[in-house]
Structure formats: structure tokens, C-alpha cells
Specification:
Ribosomal Protein S8, Chain: A, domain 1; 3 helices; Dna Ligase, domain 1; alpha+beta; 2 domains; 128 residues
């Protein structure tokens, strides 16, 4: 039994990049699907497809010049320690070169969108 499925997803992506895999498959949930969609919108992954029959999300990884587009992933809020931020406290990741993903009352959003909508929430992870 997994205690932190989001950390499992991030670890699978990190390990697949290290092994230079073209895609990675993770069990499906609405939150992980929303996070993968944000990664696609921000250009960190090539494509995201959902297989309803197998109940999994397949993420096509992106490489730039043979190197992974995702340099780092960090889980911030964990089951043992939840981290919440207000709209004015959303951190800049790697001096603006990365993104943070938040779970807000308006859904799962990236840091810039959450600041624009003036909403805070649970800081899930940072990607750069």
C-alpha cells in the first residue's frame, strides 16, 4: 500500500528520466492527471494520455539534446507535514526557471496561475 501516491509518481518520472525511457506509466487519479497536464502545458513532458480501461496515465517524456527536460523534482507537502501557502507566499522556483504545483480550491494549478487568480493552497511539488 502506498502512503504517498504523488511522491510515487514523481519518483517514477525521475527514475524513468535517469534510465532514458521514452514514457512512464503511473496509476490514475484525478490529482495526478491534473499534475501531468500541467507538466505538459509547461513543456516539461511531450504528451499525457489516460487509459480508462487500465486505469493508468502514460506520460511521454521529453528530452532536449539527449538530456531530460526535467532537471529536478521535489515533493514539498508530504502526508506527515502539509505545507500551505497564501497567494502572496507562493515561492519562485530556481529564480523563475521552474514551476511549483499547488492544490487550491479552484483545482490543481501552477504557481503563476494561482498568483494571477489570487488564491493559495497546498504546495504539492516543485519542478525545474
Amino acid at each position: 500500500m502506498l502512503t504517498d501516491p504523488i511522491a510515487d509518481m514523481l519518483t517514477r518520472i525521475r527514475n524513468a528520466h535517469l534510465a532514458l525511457h521514452k514514457e512512464v506509466s503511473v496509476p490514475r487519479s484525478k490529482m495526478k492527471e491534473a499534475m501531468a497536464t500541467i507538466l505538459k502545458q509547461e513543456g516539461y513532458v511531450e504528451d499525457v494520455s489516460v487509459d480508462e480501461e487500465k486505469r493508468c496515465i502514460t506520460i511521454a517524456l521529453k528530452y532536449v539534446g539527449g538530456r531530460p527536460a526535467i532537471r529536478g523534482l521535489k515533493r514539498i507537502s508530504k502526508p506527515g507535514r502539509r505545507v500551505y501557502v497564501g497567494a502572496g507566499e507562493i515561492p519562485r522556483v530556481q529564480n523563475g526557471l521552474g514551476i511549483c504545483i499547488l492544490s487550491t480550491s479552484r483545482g490543481v494549478l501552477d504557481g503563476q496561475t494561482a498568483q494571477a487568480e489570487k488564491t493559495g493552497g497546498e504546495l504539492l511539488c516543485e519542478v525545474w
